[in-house]
Amino acid sequence: METNQQGQNQGVVKIKGEVLADNIHGKTFTGSKFKIGQYGFLQPIEKGLQINAPENFGSKRGIGLQIAGEGVGPKDAGVPPGLFIYEDPDFTKGHSVPSAVNRVLLTVAGMACFSSRVSGSIVKGQPILTNLDSNFPFSSTYPVKFIGYQEGGFMRFFGTDNDNTNIWNIKVDTWGSDRKLKTDIKDSEFNAIEFVEKN
What we know:
By secondary structure, the chain is mainly β. The protein has one helix spanning 192-198; strands at 34-36, 40-45, 48-54, 62-68, 82-88, 114-118, 121-125, 146-150, 154-158, 167-171. The radius of gyration is 30 Å and the shape is elongated. The N and C termini lie far apart (99 Å). The mean pLDDT is 76.
């Protein structure tokens, strides 16, 4: 506990060493920044919480995670609201949104449940992952967010419009061709390869 020159309690506690404490109960930390390694950290931000986990103790590179109550900046280039996980090449150079990377940053050892809009209603369930958006990155393409089977032999594919314009039905074939399903099959002397070569 820090005190002034008169020995009065200043209300400031400094904790040094590798171990923070065995137990801290009933305390509120305001504006605190906790270091992780040499350059990583856990700290509050204006609208949430930020964690930068380094690859090793002395690395400036690693994985970042932010939980924001509201998005910051433009939709395509800013920090999105909610949970945001990214790879950061240099923790010391902040104030920029890292680029997308071809690397797994989230692993869920269990089932995931998401909500999305379909036919004007919010529906919760297991997701169909897609990185397509309407007409992007390819023109005349649309994402499919829900797939279901409808009685009568139809597969139904749902987009995310507020109406029924992005619903596609595909008739599932009810017949097949398999030798085991056919009868009266007899051997033949006809040579199909010779026939093709002659013609």
